[in-house]
Amino acid sequence: MPLPAPDEPKNQVALRSPAELADALPYLLGFYPDDSIVVVALHGSRGRFGGRIRIGIPAADDEWPAVSEQVAACLEGEGEAGSGGRRPDGAILFLCQDPEPGRKREEVMKRLRPLAQSLRTACGEREIPVYEALCLSDGHYWSYCCPDAGCCPKEGRPLGGTGTSAMAAAAAYAGIQVRGSLREMERRLTALGGDAAETQRKALDSASSALVPRMLAPDGCAEVRARTLRLASSLMARFGEAVQDQSDSRLADAHDDGLLSDEDAAAMILGLQDRRTRDRAAEWMEAPDCGPALRLWRALARRCVGPYSEHAAAPLTLAGWVAWSSGDRPAARVALDRALRTDPGYMFARLLHRAFNEGVDPEPLRRCMRKEREARRAEEQRGPAGSAACGAP
Fold first, then answer.
1. CA gap 367, 252 in Å, rounded
2. Residues 131-153: pLDDT tens digits?
3. CB count in 10 Å sphere of residue 174
4. Which of 46, 65, 168, 277 registers the highest number of CB atoms within 10 A of its CB?
């Protein structure tokens, strides 16, 4: 998937060596990629960074050629997405994967070498040379392009200390933060397991039996919508009052999970399947609502267990929207990607994902939501609104 470049640091940094490029990767994305192919487009004679592409590394080797063609095609189209229509003049490639338990990092580097070559060939055929291809594994890096064993030994070189590079200093100056690893960010959006999942499934079954027939009835949908929004408002207040410690994401999520009963989670998850209810919920997009809203949508995504996994598209998309609206682009990117993996046809996620990747400013959409909210309130003051059937995503 093509990713827009984050804001460039105000004090420009020149990255010339494999070590500097490897240390810069998490700052280029906003997180540490796991099991990922990352390609960074280069523009002009000085190699200015353009768009980023990140995709998971396929487990099956026979999928590598097709993925390489897909990545090269995305890279070629990067100019249309956000570089004034100019094709990239080159690219930098990163393959990021840690070894499985009992395996060595050198084995990862050797196994991924054919993938690196396949990607370089696919890009080269489109006249986009890959100037550097790096493998990052277990805190070390290798260059697939450098033949000098003195510079890039076969055992690899250790990555620099976190926050000590020139890129880290420039990113800190520009206010760019690394949000953690991709694996950790996705964990925060992943459904619960074990006994917690079973009790939540039973609550969803019960709520589904009670709510779905009413949602399908023309005279019942408005009532369900109103009840869902009242519940959402009360949960927003609860999450806003219960301030969490963000220093440990697992503890923070456990704290939020404790604020949400299985019954309330089930009612919210099912209620958000109505398009109009979801659109109303999307209006919690500005301070001081952003923090509690993002936590609530994440917690609801974690409650979409078992046969209700596809229901997560709604809270995941809302999480992506709120994160994007509040300026947290890495969190937005991960949530919207996951929403589309959950339900590739979910239109709200598709529209937001495309706008996000094309570098669109979310403010015009926020203004539109504000106007709709003001018009609705004015209509409510004139008289009760009529009932309406529930809308699909």
1. 32
2. 999 999 999 999 999 888 778 88
3. 15
4. 277
